[in-house]
Amino acid sequence: MADDGMRVGGLLSGLAVILNGEDGKESSSKTHLVSYCDDFGDQPVERALEHIFDLPNKSVGPLPGPVDSDLVRSIIKNEFSKFHMNSDSLASNREGIFIFDNGCQPHKVGLEELSICGEIRIVKPPLLLESLAMFSSIRANVCVWKGKWMYEVILETSGVQQLGWATLSCPFTDHKGVGDADDSYAFDGKRVRKWNKEAEPYGQSWVAGDVIGCCIDLDHDEILFYRNGVSLGVAFRGIHKKGPGFGYYPAVSISQGERCELNFGARPFKYPIQGFLPLQEPPSVNLLATQLLRCLSKLFNLQCIERADSSSVGKLRRLKRFVSLEELFYPVCHSICEELFCILETDARNAEYVAWGPLLSFMMKVFRLQPAHDYSSLDRFIDVFLEFRESCLIFEYIISALSSCCKTASLVLNECPYSGSYSYLALVCHILRREELMVLWWKSPDFEFLFEGFLSQKSPSKLDLHSLMPSVWWPGSCDDISYGSSLLLTTTALSEAVSKIEEKHRDLCLLVIQFIPPTTPSQLPGSVFRTFLQSLLLKNRGADRNVPPPGVSSNSVLVSLYTVILHFLSEGFAMRDIGGWLKSCETKNHNVGFLHRGGEHSFPVDLFLKNDSYQTDISRLGGSFSHLSKSHPVHDQEVEVVRWEEGCTDDEETRVTHKTTQKPCCCSSYDVELSKMSKHPIRYTAKASRVHCTPIPERSAHVAAECSAGSLNDEIADKPSTSDHSESEFGYCPMWDMRIVPRESDITSATLREEELLDTLLLLYHIGVAPNFKQASYYMSHQSQSISLLEETDKQIRERGCSEQIRRLKEVRNDYREEVIDCVRHCAWYRISLFSRWKQRGMYATCMWIVQLLLVLSKVDSLFIYIPEFYLETLVDCFHVLRKSDPPFVPPTIFIKQGLASFVTFIVTHFNDPRILSADLKDLLLQSISVLVQYKEYLAVFDGNEAATQRMPKALLSAFDNRSWIPVTNILLRLCKGSRFGSSKQGESSSSSSSSVVFQNLLREACINDEELFSAFLNRLFNTLSWTMTEFSVSIREMQEKYQVLEFQQRKCCVIFDLSCNLTRLLEFYTREIPQAFLSGTDTNLRRLTELIVFILNHITSAADAEFFDLSLRRHGQSLEKVNRGMILAPLVGIILNLLDARVATECGGQNDVVDVFASMDCPSTMHCGFQYLLEYNWAGSLRGDANLGKLGQLENFSSLLISRIKVQQIERMGCGGETDADDGICCICYTCEADAQFAPCSHKSCYGCITRHLLNCHRCFFCNATVLEVTKIGEKRM
After folding, report:
1. pTM of the model
2. Of 97, 106, 139, 401, which is closest to residue 268 (Cα–Cα)?
3. Tell me: the pLDDT tens digits for 778-788?
4. In 3D, which of 868, 830, 426 has the Cα closest to residue 623?
5. Which contiguous run of DSSP H or E holds residue 216?
6. Which of 248, 825, 919, 1177 could bridge to 465 as Cys pair (CB 3.0-4.6 Å)?
7. How far apart are CA 973 and CA 986, in angstroms?
8. What confidence tens digit (pLDDT) does each residue in 921-974 have?
9. What range(s) does the B30.2/SPRY domain occupy (predicted)?
10. Cα–Cα distance between 314 and 150 in angstroms, integer?
């Protein structure tokens, strides 16, 4: 009876809880122990084996000795043969399917190469496809005519793809594919349509990472589609019946650059649909392998229960009544693994199916989906697996399966914060801590592809966002305020989930960085990660284009990698020191992020000069790399490291660095509760507008926000330049402790450097992150517009009495409300994924670092021209993203003052730098200025910036050309705001109407001191205004002829009208500040100005239908009170009044007579109508008590005087009779003045005014087209 003392009911330690009860019954373990203590005849080891292998009770007889592997193998051999028979019986149930063997692997479902139309590339064998043609189609080599079948499509991209079924009679062409013929049926989630010759709405919008189940039910003649296991409903009913061998083939059609992976059943389906069979029969060993893994799972359960009952079991062990489960674990686990690998090694397809299916499920169960993860238990099983040589192939498949799962994993609200790809990333990070498995992954030909898979993060669709954020609220919403609290809780949970995933991305990347590959010669840590980065960047050249080339990575991969590197550089490695793999970490405190270290900065400029394949194609500021390497070669001995002291580009008194008492915004704390500021999204988005670089859309930058900043007063000093351009043009900032030194040694280039990561970070932002911020900007702006329209509609509903009108308004209101809800959800998602606090902090520090680098390198032409264009683009875009972020990163008043003072210096210094060849880049800088000066706080920064005050006035006048006149106009208009006629009508409230007196004086001085510059500017201004008004008139006339206001034409009219108003306001400013330019000297400027005034009045007053005219200017959602003719009439009145005031104030003689010039225009009736319209216009209602209202009397007096002068001139002409008509001395251009000048050498004659105006734009005779060398006045000596 001594042996009986080791048993409790015949069970081992922990077995008493579950063996003879149902797994999972929540009964007291003590109760079980007591209830089974009567059966002293049972042997504990035998009963344990019976439970693990699911054998009948007492089927295992008494064992003569301890359990060993031979015993366990014999049990497996004897008891598991039934699963082989079951597999054979399943194979006989597959009727109604035929696989056309390709001659290599019989009975394997694959692609029929002869069916390809277009060009399809196999990205990753066997079935990951990409279209290289505009539209490519392909069929599989299997057809079905009976039963219920399915296959899955994993979307690598989310563009136009038609997935479904087709017969052999379906023709594939360059423009037609699956679903475009009678016997073919397809679903396209991009366009949310189903296709069978004609398209009909169906299904849901899809995103990259979705799994589409394509099901055909030939028993009921139906075709169905599923998205991530959720039915989209029956797509097609009553499909045509087919006979044996002439059935339906799986087929797909995909557009250029789209990728998808087909799974016909060679791997377990991610979302199997009950009742539907896979086209590819599962391997026969799957049932046996599944049962073996179920046995391992039971063994694991016993371990868990033993740990859970450690207190009760421990007491019994001390009484010598139990043996440890450890005696069973190794022999049982080893024997099961031996049998498992034995059946898998016969066919690699067997190993793949089992690894992707039951084995991965087993490992996830052992590891646990959510913390606390069971690392120890998983390690025990992995230790046993690795004892077998065959396990290498299995682990390759496991890693591949985990990578695929990361692509398709979706965030689920009730699983947060451990949702999405977190569990798969946590498992792979733990597995890859084993060196042998890391080596195995690195040696895999799919290493980079799988790495990208791990970094993938599935974005939610519109419907997914509805599931994640069921409750939506915004300020002004009529919904209960509790919806706002619910939304806050939801976004907090999702933020935590995204944060957990990003943490695992960093863990994985750190493992790769730490990994030292077993190569000869040996490599340093970080070499594998660097190679991956270089390969990724090379592959994604052109990813920022409107139509990216085939083969580019998923955008989520680029964003994830950017996030990882940003965290490394910004937050440092305080939590995980990786052993000094970074060069700069050897001497600096690596607990502080690279971007936040004060003191001396350095940058190895060889990053710009290396002839690497992934860098040479990148455009540089001075042109292409190949061109620069020939025209401005930099020899190897000249490769240097640039060093400078942080803040050296700022004034010493206002300098803010990481070592000064006052810290930059990225390293400061503020008492203001920024979260409260974000509760009013309209405040930060209502004025948002996105200005892009014409004409290339991908050059766009986020240059719109409602922001403010403190004043700056930078001390500027001239520095010598190494180019022909004077330093006074492009280098205003002093450089303290700036120096260029030779590189230290070759080992530096072999070590992964933080500066190298920064270079990669900027490029990843440019090609991957910037489009996301652009999309976020769109939703923020659209949200504000939709809320305004919704509120306006609510107002109209309250005011209208007609039931029919109210019904239509309510329908419109519902549409607006849906748009608002959609925008709120998208904005919330972008705040979660893009605007994390630490990301904003890192972006701010990045801007500080890069702008100082650019200013330092601008001192050395030979290096400045080699800087990649994306450095500048990323700097500008990142700056404006931070400035308009919601919630705001820092209080706007200190956004520039504490860290980014150099940004203003850079943009005003280089927006017309001739060393920058790209006109788009110059536009980008110019547009940044245009946006910043729209707000009085930022305008104060420009007033106090010496580079701006010294350079901007003349530079802006010079930049007013055919390409840049729009942003220059906006800038000048903002600088010149002030006392202008009717300004109160234009919405210039006291908070935003402040102008820059400083720049007004500077502009006046620049125009007076440089007459040639001002003359050229004024000529371009006249020409441009004439062109815009002509375009506007033509557009209005086209709409009036058709009597319909098309949206495109209306938008065009609005834009051109605004531009015309702005240009006219500029003329008003110059007639007030520099009236002598029009009243003194020749009357050319005054005459051209007069012609423009008459021209504009004619177009404005000649509209046949005034209501139609005003309607064409009305933007969507705007009232006629805000947009009307008064916008352009007011500056015209201002121009005339300015000239009249100047004529009275000027006492000197010789000035041009304004009345005479107006009276000389050969259109008296037009002028009379125009001035009458000006006088009768409702200025009292428009000006609202404006001080200029009293000046209208001057306009009336001027009009009366003008009419009198015109009558006198008409009488004089009548008195001259026919003599005037017969006089050959009259100018044949204007038919007004005497032909008193002639061209040389052709001697053609005209009036001096017409000739002077003509020569402003062309230096050829307008009679014979001869080149004009001189102009002489008749009767005088040559001029």
Report:
1. 0.85
2. 401
3. 999 999 999 99
4. 868
5. strand 211-217
6. 825
7. 13
8. 999 999 999 999 988 888 888 888 888 999 999 999 999 988 899 999 999 998
9. 78-269
10. 53
